[in-house]
Write a structure and sequence with these properties.
alpha/beta, six-stranded mixed beta sheet, three-stranded mixed beta sheet, 4 helices, 9 strands, 29% strand
Length: 218
């Protein structure tokens, strides 16, 4: 090796070492799920209800992978290092599907072939607000609709759910999981009632609008 190569090699070695140190010191992104990792899957009986949890609509301000939290000043923080494992709309749909399965033993047939031989119920959810304040609370404002497989409207409802949260982003995510569990419970109640007595009209819950009755009135 020539005398010229020795200092050049030292320089290159130093550059590689610096790059490695920078890479090691770079903050790592944290990925969050709205379905808890320890949530136990429910065994689905052959006679289970069939539901079709449709793709969820979310406000553009929170769509995507990055978590968004509110400030008291009315501004928001878009968190680069805290992200959803999948786009938020997909996370919410998965959480609601799981929540309905836990409460009704229903099987979500979304995207699967359907022969029409058994009753199936479509669940459409439009998230109006999906807000979070660190160390304070989370708020979910959703309009949701239950329909039969032939697209006959059963019930339209608006649910507003608040949950207190602890400090930190993990506390926010846990609060959002609890709020979605509440929303799943509010959807499950009339769904079970209708499945048990399909000849009876679905009774509106507090804050709900019976879309079938409204259409008949018009």
């Amino acid at each position: 090796m020539s005398l010229f190569c020795l200092p050049m090699c030292r320089v290159l070695t130093g550059v590689v070492a610096c790059v490695a140190l920078v890479a090691c010191s770079s903050p790592q992104a944290h990925f969050h799920r709205l379905v808890a990792a320890d949530e136990v899957a429910v065994a689905v009986p052959p006679s289970a209800l069939l539901v079709d949890v449709l793709p969820v609509r979310v406000p553009p301000s929170v769509a995507g992978r990055r978590l968004v939290v509110q400030r008291s000043s009315g501004q928001v923080d878009v968190l680069e290092m805290d992200r959803w494992a999948s786009p938020l709309a997909d996370e919410i749909r998965a959480a609601l599907s799981s929540g309905l399965a836990l409460r009704t033993s229903a099987m979500d047939r979304h995207g699967l072939p359907y022969d029409g031989k058994r009753p199936a119920y479509r669940v459409a959810v439009d998230i109006q607000r999906f807000d979070a304040w660190r160390g304070s609370h989370v708020l979910i404002d959703a309009v949701w609709t239950l329909r039969t497989a032939d697209d006959r409207p059963m019930l339209t409802c608006r649910s507003v759910v608040n949950e207190d949260v602890s400090a930190g982003i993990d506390g926010v995510v846990q609060g959002q999981r609890r709020a979605l569990n509440v929303l799943a419970s509010q959807i499950a109640e009339p769904l079970l009632a209708y499945a048990a007595a399909p000849s009876e009209p679905v009774r509106p819950m507090p804050g709900c609008v019976d879309s079938s009755a409204r259409m008949l009135a018009n």
